[in-house]
Protein 1
Amino acid sequence: MTALTLGDYENLARARLDRLVWDFCAGGAGEERTLTANMAAFDDVRLRPTVLRGASDPDIATRIFGDRWAAPLAVAPMAFHTLAHPDGELATVRAATSVGMPVVVSTMAGRRFEELVSAAGSPLWLQVYCFRDRFRTQRLIEHGERAGMNALVLTVDAPRLGRRLRDVRNDFRLPPGIMPVNLDGDGFSSPAAHASAELDPTLDWSVIDWLRSISSLPLLVKGILTASDAERAVRAGVDGIVVSNHGGRQLDGVPATFEVLPEIVAAVAGSCPVLVDGGIRRGRDVLACLAVGAAAVLVGRPVLHGLAVGGQEGAAHVLGILIEELTDAMTLTGTPSLADIHPGLIGH
Ligand SMILES: Cc1cc2nc3c(=O)[nH]c(=O)nc-3n(C[C@H](O)[C@H](O)[C@H](O)COP(=O)(O)O)c2cc1C
Ligand SMILES: CCCCCCC(=O)C(=O)O
């Protein structure tokens, strides 16, 4: 079968990956209501095209923190791309570079920061998990900064890992050789045990000042779901916000990200870029997020599907499909540039 959509890639990847690895990547917390809701929110969107607008060749390039992105799209931080393909994040970074897209590299990446930065032609941001041991976190950030990462993305929705029932039932352990190679001295094979032993469950807003004291990189917070937290983040002086429910993997029952995106964009009122992730599987989903005010979107699991199916080439094809579908949706809604995207494109 020739894969034409991200859904095709998902089906192919499911057939290739070990079932326990598949469950770890695909699964969500609890009954997976939020996981399902993320995608359902986009299914309910109806676009309202305008005609005769001469939008045959839409300009989809954008700038974030002064860097040019070929499209308002980046790869979301995900642990252990090496679960999907032995080249792991190296293949992802090469794939993203081939289409001019940034990658947010997880604290739990399976390949070294240095090799990722040398392979990258687009920005790389470092996702940060804050550990109970602050010096460990500091070493991670200094390592990322030294290697050449361009921004920090602090994940704020994971004082502990969500209750992922598939992994509990499977007693999921990382296969031999899969490890967070940028962290010193780690002997864990269970992500859940690792998280409960090491993530700082007492984290509060003072962490922003602490991060500012150790790094001058732009700082985003990932995992915001309410207007009041978005306002709090702006007051704390962050450079960007990622509206995220961790792909439905943390607290089941929280809203779909697309549902809360408008209220967060309104609360932030242009103070900093608002990005969003969760359930984005088509170019028109990207368009919908931009229409309600997102500066860009992050794509998670589909990248792992591309890797599982065809390594670097598969991941590049997945990202290329999204770009092509976004361009197509813009042409067909009569939207010649990103600046022409507006909330009126969405109907109910
Ligand atoms: C296998 C997997 C690993 C993930 N690891 C991380 C991580 O290390 N740090 C993080 O902030 N988010 C992590 N996430 C959450 C993603 O960054 C993102 O929020 C989510 O996957 C977006 O939803 P989508 O997969 O529906 O696109 C992970 C998600 C998956 C599926
Ligand atoms: C401290 C170990 C956490 C690894 C889990 C990665 C992750 O965020 C996920 O959603 O899975």
Protein 2
Amino acid sequence: MVRVVAIAIEGLTKIFDDGTVAVDNLDLTVASGEFMVLLGPTGCGKSTLLRLVAGLDAPTRGRVTIDGEPVDENTPRHHRIAMVFHDYALYPHLTVAQNIGFPLRAGAHDPPEVAQRIAESARHLGIADLLNRLPAHLSGGQRQKVAMARAIVRRPEVLLLDEPLSNVDAGVRAELRAEIADLADRLEVTTLYVTHDQAEAMTMADRVAVLRKGVLQQAGPPEVVYADPETVFVAAFIGVPRPALLEAAIYADAGSVVLDLGEQALTLPPDDPRTAGLAARHTERVTVALRADALSVVDAPTPGTVTLRGEVRRVENLGHEAIVHLDTGGVGTSDAFSHLELPEPGRLPAPPPDAPPPPLMQRLARLIPHQRTEPPAPTARTPYGFYPVYDGELPGEPLPAGEVAVRVPVAHRPRPGDTLTLAVDLDRLLLFDRAGDRIRIDEHRIEEGLDNYS
Ligand SMILES: Nc1ncnc2c1ncn2[C@@H]1O[C@H](COP(=O)(O)OP(=O)(O)OP(=O)(O)O)[C@@H](O)[C@H]1O
């Protein structure tokens, strides 16, 4: 079934008077009945975006339409939109029933209908037995349910939720997550849900939109943003434990490709399409993202398997499994290079000095011989790989050694100091360029193929 686009956000930009760019040229559509989660770190513009969708603030550029009708500051109480904030904002002197019925007070509803709507909303949230209580006599979870009941009492078509569970106890949060997602589904209401909690995003969303500094990084189903991230930021922001981000240099020679991590290298199998795709990036510096599920402990390297060695630093016993953290001797990608840095409060930082050159310059750069011997002698190795780091890229302080994490059965957990061999699943090996964008090896191969025909 083709879903109708309920919310269309086009070229939306919000620049505050002090110059803060809170939302930056954002395009996003939310289908009718869809549960879309806006996910990102604090200050990335989630709340600002929600307020623009609600018509509470005016955008600097761009527009929002709901079912084709523009939303603007003249329609802040758009009758089809309901919003819930994290602080519940209940009236302390009103009972639960009066709080839920509050949005109907000025409407054209007669008292029996109001009572019926309040009862219906309370039933949806499972709080029908609390109707005569005052908010002070409710738990945090119950208060949030009252706020939700109040939001749905007008039977909105669009529900905007701004971190509604952030003030609720951790224990109740998981339960409420499921209830809210289930409620939105039953009511077939189009929902935009803001959170910085990836567990919330992954468990509740039909699609997750990941924001960084006001810029949309990626929107897609939870399993896609997890397994197929478009930027290093998305890869690093989603997943527990966080993936290891390691500096690497690509070295291609006579059909084989090596991802050099410094103290050790991943030698990719020749004749593999992924190897062919990477060969064109000979000498390029990249970030390798390795999630725990891209790694598995093996007894010893076997032919055809790509392996890493690591020394066990820490073992976290979670009862059902253990997470083993190993030092591979690799170099962790610094914040400045990984594009993971959080915005300074109130202001976006200037673009990093190592912002990528335009594509033509990148191509030309590959043609410029770098200072190295060919083939690289072991002495040419740096902590970053075979090739010396290019000018101006080395930070003053040495970077921490790159740790990777792997899951093992508790019964087979190693001890700190043990050395393990890890097989790397090449299908889950994620590579990113210096701009933080995903290197899609197959696409690159197609591009190269086209080049050959031009
Ligand atoms: N009225 C304002 N004037 C100036 N800057 C503002 C204003 N409101 C928000 N900002 C800034 O805009 C950026 C985005 O803020 P916003 O509240 O949308 O982020 P957020 O992702 O919702 O953060 P959080 O998760 O902490 O609520 C931040 O840098 C914030 O400091």
Protein 3
Amino acid sequence: MHLITAAAAACILIIPSIVILRRYRRAVAMISDFPGLRLIVSPMCSLGLVLPSLPMPLYTYPGFSFPSVLKHEGLFKHFKCDTVSLCGLLDGRAILYTCDVPFLTRMASHVGSTVFPKPIEEYGVLGYFGDNVVIAEGANWRRQRKVTAPAFSSKVFERLWVDMADITREMIQQENWDRRTEDFVPPPSPQFTPEGEYIPAEGEIYFPNVVDITLRMALAAIARTGFGIDFEWRTGESFTNTCQSFGESFYSTTLRVIYTIAHVTLKLILPTSVHTLLLHSLRRDPKPAQSSANGLVGRLHLLAVNIVHGPSQLPQEKMHLQEALHLVAKESTLKLAMASLPSWISKLPIRRLHRMNMAFECLQQELGRMVTQRRKELMNPAEPLSPAPSMNSSESGDSFYSQSSSKSSPVLSDNSDLLSNLVRSAVQTEKAGGVTLTEEEIVGNAYIYLLAGHETTAHSLAWTLALLAAYPEQQEKAYQEIIEGDPSEDTIIRDYPKFRFLLACYYETLRLFPPVQQIPKIAAEDTQIVIERTNEEGEDAFNTFPEDVVDFPRATKTPTLHVTRASISGHRTRPSLSAIKVGGLPLRADSSFGVPSLPCTPATTPPKEYVRLPGDPSTPTRSEFLGPMPFTQLSKDGQPVNAELPFVATDQTRVVIKKDTIIFISPPAVHYNPKYWKDPHQFNPERFLKPYHKGAFIPFGVGTRACLGRKFSEVESVCMLVHLLRNYSVHLPVRPGETVEDVRAQFSKASVRITLTPDKIPLIFRKRNQD
Ligand code: HEM
């Protein structure tokens, strides 16, 4: 018996251990061409999300947020390679982390995207509202992208500019920013509470966390320009008056639980026990008591049944569309987290969960209704276009836009919002006989605009304001640009190109704080690539890289040419030492914790270098450099299928990326890589006014799957900055004894949720003409 127990216990322990070990060894073998970390738990698995990071230099566990914390300085610098590997024993996934621009650019190109698609299984939860472009791959993605891309038309940006100007004005007016008096003089020394909170001087506008307003502004932009919904900055009477009923009452959910307990107690236990009690204890005629007890039970039971089965008799909970929009935007992280748990958990009678579910249901229904309506109108153009839905039902169809259009712009009454454009594009595709989007897919894509465009833009705007506050000389340049470009305070989208410096400030912020911290890809096949080793001293050699010159290997027939940075910048890059094989022998990477070896093919063919002569028509164009065959795919027996990779230069090596390897492109590491950015930690917007390495600026993703809403976000942010900084200067609450760098370190603290989220950005606004 003992023997059987021991054998069973051994099986329970040993078999899973063997499975785990085999999986781990397989994963390690897949990524053994790259130096990196071998861990107990990988930061990319569910357990890794909750574990705290352990200190360097041991790298025992770098923590889920390590890309945002370590940037380029962590693993990449340590291993002297711009692509590093990660594998956790417990999850056994083969992971590569890369900030190698040529590699990631090729990976995301048209050819590369089929070899390295997006691992869409990880994104399934984003399909809550319907299939959409973010969670699609292959032919489905191409169809989605083809129909959704035209929605971002110039009309939308025209409208966005007007909407953003209105939103900023409304905020200033409704938050009473103009209360400051003319003769205000800032106090000589700033005051703080004992807890360290800034005490604003009379007339100053202080936000303990400016994200509170930027989130609201970005939401208003998506609501108005995105969906054509009137969004009030402050919700007054009309907000409560125009509630609509959605979902099941919270109280009925709670009562359902109570009912289940009551049902068992009242229906099964109580009648029997009451009966017995009455019969045996009272020893009188039990009938009246029994019948009254049964009557009571019956009544209670009926009540419970009514409560549970007749929710219509209960007062319905109500939710306004604006509130739903706000809650969906706010609770999306929670909703996504709930998706990995059993579904009953999200139905627990917890108020927050209940309101979240209601909000999602409400928005889905409302978007669905809007799509059906607009589609009907577009399919039958004889019918007039419906007005944008209003938050205020008493407006009887005359939307906010048609009212405000007279004061600001005539474009607002023509359903030029993103959602209408999307429906229009779908209808046009359908009419042209193409494969279009279903109504559900349109709603799915609309939800993605909210998810992808809200927090990303709001956090970036907050950080832009904070950085301008930290660097007053840059703020002054921005201000000068605004008053030169916007003397009448009545700009239109045509003025947008005037604000180059503001856009540069926004770009520089996105470089320093890229909202999307990692972009995953998966290797669909065994694929051979060329990677470059980090040049130990040559960082600056690449900074003068001309804008129009790219360093892609040219995939032609013999001889294959290759552009190296060294040849262009006039430097010879020195081969990286430890990471490269010398004399045909694989070297071990410089690591004390068991980093795998780096087998490299010896450079048998001398490198041929190609110098792109700018302006010379006889030299190949950028697209020729990109070429059709950036990878060598390998057959099952490891032989090249398309033998196009011709040589290995001194600072490069060929490696094989095995099928099913997950590759994370790391925007923070690319943005802080000194190869591409001089003084990468410095806030220097001017760098974007000169030629810069475009391939190394990837906050909006890279290649064919790059962000569809990039311009939307740029126009929105620049417009908001124009209208805010024109009238207000922005400052940091610097405590006595603190430097600006200290404050910058504080507002740079962030956590990685769906996007990079600042912990807290306190800011002070002061009216300009009174400075
Ligand atoms: C600062 C603002 C923004 C940043 C940093 C940003 C970043 C990104 C990134 C990195 C991707 C690529 C993800 C991947 O390859 O897996 C992406 C895709 C996307 N973004 Fe944005 N985004 C921003 C704003 C917006 C806005 C305002 C919208 C819409 C209104 C939007 C809509 C989309 C869509 C639809 C995609 C999917 C494209 C595709 O898969 O083909 N984004 N975004």
Protein 4
Amino acid sequence: MGDQGLTLENVEIRNGQNTLISINTHIAPGEVLTIMGPSGVGKSTLLSYVIGNLPPGFDAKGRIVLDGHDITHLPTNKRRVGILFQDDLLFPHMSVGENLSFGLHADIKGRAVRRMHIEAALTEINLEGFANRDPETLSGGQKARVALMRMLLSNPCALLLDEAFARLDTKLRGQVRNLVFEYARKRDLPTLMVTHDQADADAAGGECIHLLEFGKPN
Ligand SMILES: Nc1ncnc2c1ncn2[C@@H]1O[C@H](COP(=O)(O)OP(=O)(O)OP(=O)(O)O)[C@@H](O)[C@H]1O
């Protein structure tokens, strides 16, 4: 068994001739690494490399190692990396329970067993009895909690946050952020957060890397 946590080993992402990002770092279980920097510097592209979904036109070098396993060449669905985006909308044509079921790991089989997991998950986020609700009838905070839980139900071993709180108003932002960090700590998930908001970085409390225009950390 290798080191626990998420390692980006000499990762370099290029867009044609330009080096966009160059990073070499390790995030221990339960810790948050924040990445900040100007728009277009390549923050989201880095996260897409970590989940195995680099857009066409980019090249990347370097290894991604999760809990001692080299996941660099694994398909996205085998990486055990969860991601939350700012536009993490719930599927509107599905109930809250069906949305959660979408996240629930495929290894969990049987209708009754899956329903039990979903009920437990709803209780955990204080939304007991919400399984049949239409997501459109939920408040912003409730939707954010369901989106978080949908992602956690896939049992990720690392967490990525791509401006995940950007659309929430200040008060809600703080609450949802605290909840996400609480889960990350509780489940010992190494967390890589991209944000423009210093308050997110402050709340995370861990290391913060500021990327400059050409992707070089200062
Ligand atoms: N799918 C794509 N195809 C081609 N170029 C892309 C694609 N996605 C992003 N880019 C370009 O790659 C560069 C990095 O984009 P990226 O979204 O990673 O930046 P970012 O730092 O996350 O920016 P922001 O803070 O605005 O979200 C930008 O110049 C962008 O225009």
